[in-house]
UniProtKB/TrEMBL annotation:
<dbReference type="Pfam" id="PF12680">
    <property type="entry name" value="SnoaL_2"/>
</dbReference>
<feature type="domain" description="SnoaL-like">
    <location>
        <begin position="17"/>
        <end position="128"/>
    </location>
</feature>
<dbReference type="InterPro" id="IPR032710">
    <property type="entry name" value="NTF2-like_dom_sf"/>
</dbReference>
<dbReference type="InterPro" id="IPR037401">
    <property type="entry name" value="SnoaL-like"/>
</dbReference>
<protein>
    <submittedName>
        <fullName>Nuclear transport factor 2 family protein</fullName>
    </submittedName>
</protein>
Length: 132
């Protein structure tokens, strides 16, 4: 994992905590890092765009996705951080636990590279945008 030298340690810590919770499928730990009015976007070449605008909507999607994967992992490749925003290049690896509507089958490995943008205000994430 690489963070640039000008990184803000609070932003770095928050992102590392979010990814650790994501990898552990720990939805309550993920939610603890979010503002009530979190804008979450997942923009994927293969499955379209998902957008939520509240913590409750984010929780619904996060809990639904738990059953899709028997394991999943995000690995930070590189990031540029400031006090309130960050751009993070991420490798994503997962094993499907069930067949998906897009034709992928249970047991298949999924590997993607993407970029996630994070914004924080008052110690909470107000935006997370994933692009893959």
């Amino acid at each position: 994992m690489t963070f640039d030298r000008l990184s803000d340690s609070r932003m770095e810590e928050a992102i590392l905590n979010y990814i650790k919770a994501y990898n552990a499928k720990d939805v309550p730990a993920m939610l603890a890092l979010l503002d009530d009015q979190i804008l979450f976007e997942n923009v994927s070449n293969s499955s379209g765009t998902t957008v939520t605008t509240t913590k409750e909507e984010f929780e619904t999607i996060a809990r639904q996705s738990l059953s899709y994967f028997s394991e999943r992992k995000q690995i930070i490749r590189f990031s540029v951080l400031s006090e309130e925003s960050a751009a993070v290049e991420i490798d994503y690896q997962a094993t499907l636990a069930q067949d998906l509507p897009n034709g992928l089958k249970a047991g298949q490995q999924v590997q993607l590279r993407g970029v996630s943008l994070f914004e924080r205000r008052n110690g909470k994430f107000v935006r997370i945008s994933d692009y893959s």
